[in-house]
Amino acid sequence: MSSSDTSMINAINGLEQSTVLFSQVYCIFLLIFGTVGHLLSIYVFTRPALRYNPCIRYFLASAISGSINVCIVVPIRMLQLGYGIDIFIYSLPVCQVLSYFLGWIRLVPVWFISMASIDRFLASSSSATLRGWSNIRITYRMIPMIVLFISLIYIHYPFNQAILLSPQPSCTFATSSYRAFFSIWNLIFWSWIPTILMLVSGLLTIRNIHKTSDTSMTDAINGLQQSTILFSQVYCIFLLVFGTVGHLLSIYVFTRPALRSNPCIRYFLASAISGSINVCIVVPIRMLQLGYSIDIFIYSLPVCQVLSYFLGWIRLVPVWFISMASIDRFLASSSSATLRGWSNIRITYRMIPMIVLFISLIYIHYPFNQAILLSPQPSCTFATSSYRAFFSIWNLIFWSWIPTILMLVSGLLTIRNIHKSKNRTVPQNIQNNIHENNKRMDRQLIRMLIIQCFVFSITTTILSIIQLYVSITNNLIVKDNYVKARDQFAVNIGNFIALFGPCMSFYFFTLSSQLFRRHLVDGFRRQQPIQNTTNTNAQQRHI
């Protein structure tokens, strides 16, 4: 067997193992949080003050169907993909019935949410006839009609399922042409139609709200503010608990003797430390500010400027360290001895403070353009709308685009270097084993980097786009208080989403890298031989 075939088999085995591990971890996550979440949702939606609201009834139906997904679909998929127990292949009828049920039940929740959106449009209409369609009796009729509708449009699915024996027994599509048809069908009925219904009815509802009285406008603004408070309290507690534990474990793993001398690991360690600062300082300050209305930014202008500078600057640091780790992997995998020489621990120790200094300098303009505005309420924010627009573009470039491009380009170059290294002849025996171990570690580190690149690019881009949209629309249109409150709500949510990457990196490391998991588990096991030896010595002394 050639080396390329061996590499291909190893790659396939790696994907299969990744699927197994991801299925086990992700399904357990869905089972725990999904079960608790849906039980709490059902409890809330059946409260006396809510149970007779038509929209709440659709939410309740969605929660019940969602709980069926959690309690039935998730365990079946976990057994199938995570533990190799595939009940679909016992017989063709079992394959067809289970495939039909598991596919059908997935569509139900999103269609109930679409009906809830339509109900809100009807309830907010100025027409008494349309408002009459938003009542509990019609809701009770619509819920079984939606279930029947989805059952009928999905009826073709089981008759096009078959048990194929190659390359391994599986219940799947009978023909490739039906697979193509079903992909388009799924896109239309599971994604496009419900999304269009929600979007159109949502926009029409907003239009209806704008036509209503100032009281309704005030209620809508208060609703957005209450949503911000609740979201801030819950989400920040989540980040504090899981982020603190995750970063402590990441720092523990990255300081293990087998890893601490690796330059790439040093960048990961620096990213974990800066991420822990985000968790322990930035998150509590934002939670006090948005969740409990304790805004320490507005005590004085110097406090506003210094805190804004620090909280903005520290958010950029983790993603830049991950970018440096990507560049280090490219250098380490290069065929050029000169480039490989740049991947060493001494240069890493120099680059880390240089990155910190670089971000400090490029961010220096930020505090001088912060001000405490008193209307509509005291807040530390941008001094001018023109600077807000400039900073939105600046943020998009230095927080999203440049780090993402660095990670993407260096990642592609690293993959190219690894493919080239397959054709090189290396000495046998000891050096060959060292070479294979290094390649294995490279693959694991690249996988960690790819996941981090994806997470950081998505979460940072969302906030940058929201800020850019708010800045542009502020200069183009005159906004009422509701639109301003909605924009601020979107910015606050974007800020919290941007904190997700720096705070949750441990869990992405754990899911993506066998190397990280092995060292994490080994770290907890290393005390066992010492304890066993101590117990043995104690028994001998007793004898």
From TrEMBL:
Residues 37-242, 246-509 form the G-protein coupled receptors family 1 profile domain. It comes from Adineta steineri. GO terms for cellular component: membrane. PROSITE patterns: G_PROTEIN_RECEP_F1_2. It comes from the Eukaryota. This is G-protein coupled receptors family 1 profile domain-containing protein. The chain crosses the membrane at residues 20-46, 58-78, 98-118, 138-157, 187-206, 227-253, 265-284, 296-314, 320-339, 351-368, 396-415, 449-469, 489-509. One of its GO terms (molecular function) is G protein-coupled receptor activity.
